[in-house]
Design brief:
Pfam families: Guanylate_kin
Number of strands: 9
Shape: globular
Subcellular location: Cytoplasm
Protein name: Guanylate kinase
Main location: cytoplasm
Distance between the termini: 30 Å
GO molecular function, one term: ATP binding
CATH topology: Rossmann fold
Structural class: alpha/beta
Strand order of the largest sheet: 2-7-1-8-9
CATH class: Alpha Beta
CATH architecture: 3-Layer(aba) Sandwich
Largest sheet: 5 strands, parallel
Length: about 200
């Protein structure tokens, strides 16, 4: 774990920028990505940390914007070098958050947003306890299944795997600072904005 430097002196509080790490997590298909996109459009002052992944781009995804798409061997090399704040394997692919970029932006006073899976969010809670974690819940499990099937991007086997995992993830919601139900999209966005900006 990399520790942020603490400056001594009476006026530290006044001059230090107030950066913070915000983690958005929840089960696959709950709408984390769409919520994040909307927040970033409305609040350009937020910094979105783009994760690295070994999965293939989905239709419409851009390298460097949605994810940095890299090979499995390159990812494993970065893990060995300690370059990730968190990383996890999900549905047969690796995902990870680059450490240096995130810490630089927090130190410069930015609100840094991560949209990550449960395992990664737990790693952040353990190694970065000052992070604020927000868990996005579906209104019902059947609605979540409808959303995942509605994507039309996954095989039946993959859908079953995602749904099974989603049940486990939903049970972990209480581990996180704030839970928001994504029933009405605009309401969910406003609730997150209230958490971020008071």
């Amino acid at each position: 774990m990399q520790v942020l430097p603490i400056h001594s002196g009476a006026t530290t509080k006044e001059c230090q920028p107030h950066g913070k790490l915000i983690v958005l997590t929840g089960p696959s298909g709950v709408g984390k990505g769409t919520l994040m996109q909307t927040l970033l459009q409305r609040h350009p002052e937020l910094y979105y940390s783009v994760s690295l992944t070994t999965r293939s781009p989905r239709p419409g995804e851009t390298n460097g914007k949605n994810y940095y798409f890299i090979s499995r061997s390159k990812f494993e090399q970065l893990v060995a070098q300690g370059e990730f704040l968190e990383w996890a394997e999900f549905a047969g692919n690796y995902y990870g958050t680059p450490r240096a970029t995130v810490l630089d932006h927090i130190q410069s006073g930015k609100l840094v947003m991560l949209e990550i899976e449960l395992e990664g969010a737990r790693q952040i809670r353990a190694s970065f306890p000052s992070a604020l974690s927000i868990f996005i819940l579906p209104p019902t499990f059947s609605e979540l299944e409808k959303r995942i099937r509605g994507r039309g991007q996954d095989s039946e086997e993959s859908i079953v795997r995602r749904l099974h995992r989603a049940q486990t993830e939903i049970e972990a919601a209480d581990e996180f600072d704030i839970q928001i139900v994504n029933n009405d999209f605009e309401t969910a966005v406003k609730e997150i904005e209230a958490v971020l900006f008071g």
